């Protein structure tokens, strides 16, 4: 009886082990199949992403690929053959204004030195297309055509902050009052903070007043974010010296800390009304951040600020201006580790200017 009991126990144990082994194999098989499905789905997303309007074949190259619920059927030839106006020639390419069929005005950036591989470019541009924030100018579409890459954005009728600060040509231009400048600076800070919290290696890379576009209500829309990621390793454009952090030699060396520095310069530009380069001392190479430090050591602090701000002088404004000046100086410290995080910058601006947001 004992031998029979041991034999039955052994058989049961063997059967249980075989069943367990079979179950393990089944689970492993299903897992491998799911990986294959996920890989196929991922490849499909890269080729024809769900977020992209699919009324065209991206691999054909000549069609614009729209994000979200964009208009389909537009080609890059349509952009090139439409009457267009060059807006500016920047670090990463030429931007021009044109119209799509139907009369929709768009801003097109014709990139230079971007990824040589169309597949690589498409993968990276999709990473940019999913970044959405109310103070970012969203990427509407892209196109690869004849070894050139194009990005399409909404056209902001009010133009750039640089235009309003330095290029006023008409009294109809909206005045940049102190409250408006605070709102613009705060909006840009929110956009940068959003980018920095998206990932530890995500940064803007080219913050300057010409890349801050304005809505009809003078709200900030920060443009050109993420374009640094589209550059080929061989293409190393120089960034504008006045905005460039001391540790950065070319566009591939930007970081979140260098973004903080560039934002500090932008804040100084709003406070002083002075261009960061070319207007202070073109021959000696003195830039805005250095000039401000010299001024506050040698002159009364009010002489630093834009005369237009002093015309609307109020004691309450002076306190806010001085606090933001101190913040801008902290952002432009020479050593990156001494600069604050954008979260701290945003908090200080919110407290100083008594602004609110969902950040």
UniProtKB/TrEMBL annotation:
- InterPro entries recorded: Kinase-like_dom_sf, PRK1-6/SRF4-like, Prot_kinase_dom, Ser-Thr/Tyr_kinase_cat_dom
Gene3D superfamilies reported for this sequence:
Phosphorylase Kinase, domain 1 (3.30.200.20), Transferase(Phosphotransferase) domain 1 (1.10.510.10)
Could you tell me one molecular function GO term of this UniProt entry?
protein kinase activity
Q: Does the keyword NAD apply?
A: no
The residue ranges crossing the membrane are 12-31
Q: Residues in domain Protein kinase?
A: 81-353
Keyword field: Kinase, Membrane, Receptor, Transferase, Transmembrane, Transmembrane helix
Entry keyword RNA-binding: no
Pfam families annotated for this entry?
Answer: PK_Tyr_Ser-Thr (PF07714)
Protein name stated in the entry: Probable inactive receptor kinase At1g48480
> What gene does this protein come from?
LOC113715496
